[in-house]
Amino acid sequence: MMQRDDATLRQMAAARPDMSTWLSANAGSGKTRVLTDRVARLLLDGVDPQHILCLTYTKAAASEMQNRLFLRLGAWAMLEKDALTAALTELGVAGPLSDTALRDARRLFARAIEAPGGLKIQTIHSFCASLLRRFPLEAGVSPQFVEMEDRTAKLLRAEIVEQIAAGPDATKLYALARHHTGETLDDLTAEIAGKAPLFDETWTQAGMAKALGLRPDATHRSLESDVFHGHETQLLTKLVTALSVGSTTDMKAAAKLKRINALDFNSLPILEDAFLTKSGKAPFTVSTRFPTKATRAALGDTIDLIDAWMHRVEAARPQRIALEALHVSTALHEFAQVFLPAYARAKQLRGWLDFDDLILRARALLTRSDVAAWVLFRLDGGIDHILVDEAQDTSPVQWQVIDRLAQEFTSGLGARQDVQRTIFVVGDKKQSIYSFQGADPREFDRMQRDFAERLEAAGTPLQTQRLEHSFRSSRPFSMLWMPHLRGARSRGFHLNRATYPSGPPCPAASICGR
Question: In terms of residue numbers, what domain contains 394?
Answer without folding.
Answer: 20-139+356-471
